[in-house]
Design brief:
Blueprint: E1 7-11, H1 16-24, H2 27-30, H3 41-53, E2 63-69, E3 75-85, E4 90-97, H4 107-121, E5 127-133, H5 137-146, E6 149-156, E7 161-169, H6 170-173
Parallel strand pairs: 4-5
Antiparallel strand pairs: 1-2, 2-3, 3-4, 5-7, 6-7
Helix pairs in contact: 1-3, 4-5
Amino acid sequence: MYKRNEIQLRELRGEDAVQMLAWENNQENWLVSDRETSLNLKDLELLIETQQNVGSIYDLDQYRFMITEAKTGRPIGTIDLYEASWNDDLAYVGILIAKKQDRKKRAGFHALELLLDKMHHEFELEFALARIQKWNIASIRLFEKVGFQKKIIDTYAEEEVDYIEFVCELEKKW
């Protein structure tokens, strides 16, 4: 089991592109995302370069952090803000703990808490949202433990995927 001080969020680095490519193109991970096609290395290098060169996070609608073990620096996953609406004080959150052996050890819980704290105190957002497939019980439990509550159920007929939408009021959490 991880403790909160054993997990860190850090900015993306150029060398992260190869690792993220392997995670993004692992079709097992597609089951819990909207991904249907492979990414290429250039896509991830562009994401990293964009984040490194942006004047302000408020100029982007997506921002990714690497989740690492604090002691070793070993990357274990990613956590994203996406569909950020800075004027509406909200952003969606997505998380991936890449390897099964790193799951169910509270790394995701601590990474989410670290990001929500950052969203509220640094980015001054009021709401974090998440879309989770209704069959993904592990993710639903994780987000509920961190303080998210069911908002609405949306069925995206075009994609034939059922989601449950969750919201976390950051002001109430901190």
